[in-house]
Amino acid sequence: MRTLICFCIFVCTNILLMSTLTAQPVYGIAESAVPYDPNNPTGGPKSCYNPSTGDPCRTIFWVHGLGGDALKAWQKVGPDIETKYWVDSEFPEYPQISLKSAGQGLLDAIKNSEGVNRPLEDHLKPFVIAHSQGGLAVRAADLERTNTQKGDPYFGGIVTYGTPHGGAPILQHVDDMVDLMEEGCVHIANSKLTEFVESNFLLDLLINPEKIKQKFIKPACEFLSGLAPTFASEFLSPITDEYKQKPVFFDEFNSKIQNNVAFYGVEEDPVFFRLLKWLNTSSETVPVYTANEDQDMVDKVNLVSDEYYLKYTSQQGWVDWLDGYWWHPGGWFGNWGRKNDYQKKANANRAVFDWLKTVDNKWKLIIGVGTEHKKVTEGYCICVAYDGSGFEIRKDFYSNMSFEECDEKNVNWDYSCSHYETFHYEFGELEESDGVVPVSSAIDFPNSISDQLLYSNHQQMRNDRNTERSTKDLMIVGKYGHFLKQSKNKEYEKYYGWH
How far apart, in whole angstroms, are the C-alpha atoms of residue 192 and residue 202? Predict the structure, then answer.
């Protein structure tokens, strides 16, 4: 039962994929998620200055992704950066109806910020850090500014984390995602039911697990999977239609912003279960830069998988052993009954094992980084001869025969031949990903520098060790250009050290 409960949590988590339901949005600047400040008791907008230079603090706009929340998406990293550098973090909200409306809403929020309404030198001009869909919203804001207003952009740089600049294939496969959840739900529930029923003599006489599966389990799993559109309303919102493939919204648009960086995640296998860990445990709920560990989820899945395989081999072993007693007249019926029970349990447990071992490749097909090739292992031909009355009189089997060779045998009406194949599908990996966005899509950002976040999945990258490393490379090392470098907060360094 524990496994079944865990799987129900798993199904619900996947239904909510990339879909954190939010309250009715108000498009503007959200308050910073910093702790209570006695010098700013209202928590409202405050003037921030570097005491050593007298310069105003530089504004960084932190933008959330699909279905996200203005504060929650960056609630750990934004405030941390605010303490370490002379910056002012702001968290703009935007509508998620279309890229155009997202861009306009974001532009309206940003242009009213104190950080953009003053003359500033380059090293003080605002820039944007955005996750996932947020990067497209920022680019749309840049386009809206260019098309409707004169002058320089409101921000001088765009830094994206896991943004599907080249499109998000996962959005083309929502039905496949639902089917994958339903398939796993049916297999695991059926395995538990079969184990329970076939191990109880009276229940075995009264209940047929296959009928229960068809009448109750499958409809229940279909219903649960059918809730996906309700819970994942943002995931299916109109804005996503515009980047299922590479957005044409930005075609032939030459941005004036040149200080751009595109970070892309490269998660290790199995990407599905590593992503699942940080869907189930949101990266915003752990301390800053600690959304790192996902091997524990993989280890748990491997243990569960091994348990199902051991059950299968044990039960199949009993089936094979009982086969040797077919000749025993006194025990034939009892042995046949026990053999049938063991075979049902073995088949049910093997189905779960196979699903757990193939779900990662199926997920890669859904997110667009995998492909399947049909591999024919044998072709054969079956021909049926008929008499003058049309009754079958003979059936011929021809092995290792091609379709053309088989078709040539269809010479008369009384000798009909059909070609058959035995085949399987072989999986091939096309490219790496962060578990949601393919690398090729995340780096398809014109006039940008691309950099890898190794072992970061789509959810982790907002608050893991790579987030810390990449922001340091941005603001201290100057790895991506002088424009994005930032002055350290010397008071923080003096009292707390640098980490």
Answer: 17
